[in-house]
Amino acid sequence: MLGDISDSQNCEFDNNLDSNIQIRLDSSKYDEHTLNDNYEFEEIGKGSFGTVFLARCENSDDKVALKAVKMKRFCLAQRREIKREKSAWMSVSRHPHIVTLISCFKMSTRFCFVSGYVDGQNLTTFLHYNEFLEEAEAKILASQVASAITFIHNKGIIHRDISSNNIMIDRTKGAQLIDFGLCTYERNPRDYCGTVFYSCPEILEEKPYDAYCDWWAFGIVLYEMLIGKTPIEIYLKIFNYIDNMDLTSLIEIAKMAQNAQLQYPKRLSMNAVDMIEDLLQKDPNKRLQEGDIRIHRFFDDVPWPESVHN
């Protein structure tokens, strides 16, 4: 996706994939099965992070998702990143609005994550076909995502890649947050990662940032839910900027877009506008405090998702 940035180091790739390797899951639910022997695979997503497959059990209705990340030879940094992703994702998997990590294991040329399957599509795709969400529906999904973010932060984790691409909408479970590949336990990191359209001013200006970068991104997602596009997408369209620009140019445009006044349709309530404005404060010290998000007037008539004990 345009605007994706990462702090991953460049390493040599091993391009040889052993297609016949037997994969045994380390979850007790799957101890007696091997994926190759018992599951059929269908590719459902692909990106710089790797490839995601839907795995269907041939003998039951069981479905799981498998993310396969190509192993980089002689790259200790990647191994640390995989270990961090597994640790963080596993620690928050009990939340009802975070996709559950079932297992993580290593093949000869791939790291694999097995997770719960989401019966639906991501928010980006949903908005592409539906334009925007009605405010009542947006409130419900936003409360679910906000609850998940708060839970993640309570575990000492910063997600760093909250975006409409990483929010799935399950037909029965509602919002499901995915992808912990860029998360960190570090306090006040400076490294440059995430998706430009959702990046807070601190990240774009290469300053230290904290967990409130996730709340800025949440504010962008909420705006996108209610309007149909991110503020930067609207800015790019208004000023007729060309597609496929390089990352440096896009970052500079993103900085300019953050100085532009946001536009809101008349159909939005003042509570919705106030919520977005409170989240998208350029000064992180003026951003809506995490403890005040749940009690904001925007969520007054929405039941907060059931709490999960840490």
User: How would you write the strand order of the largest sheet?
Assistant: 3-4-5-8-7
Rg, please? 20 Å
| Distance N to C terminus | 34 Å
Overall body shape:
globular
Order of helices and strands: EEHEEEEHEEEHHEEEHHHHHH
Helicity, as a percent range: 25-40%
Quantity of strands, as a count = 12
Query: Main sheet?
Result: 5 strands, antiparallel
Query: Which stretches are poorly predicted, pLDDT < 50 over at least 5 residues?
Result: 5-26, 28-33
Portion of residues in beta strands equals: 15-25%
Mean pLDDT: 85
Tell me the structural class: alpha+beta
Walk me through what this model shows.
This protein has 310 residues and is α+β, with helices and mostly antiparallel strands. The chain has ten helices and twelve strands. It has helices at 35-38, 76-92, 123-130, 135-154, 201-204, 212-227, 231-238, 247-259, 270-279, 290-293, and strands at 4-5, 12-13, 39-47, 50-57, 63-70, 72-73, 101-106, 110-116, 120-122, 167-170, 174-177, 194-195. Strands 3-4-5-8-7 form a five-stranded antiparallel β-sheet. A three-stranded antiparallel β-sheet has the order 9-10-11. Strands 1-12 form a two-stranded antiparallel sheet. Helix 4 (135-154) packs antiparallel against helix 6 (212-227) and helix 7 (231-238) packs across helix 8 (247-259). The chain is globular. The two termini are 34 Å apart. Residues 5-26 and 28-33 have low confidence and may be disordered.
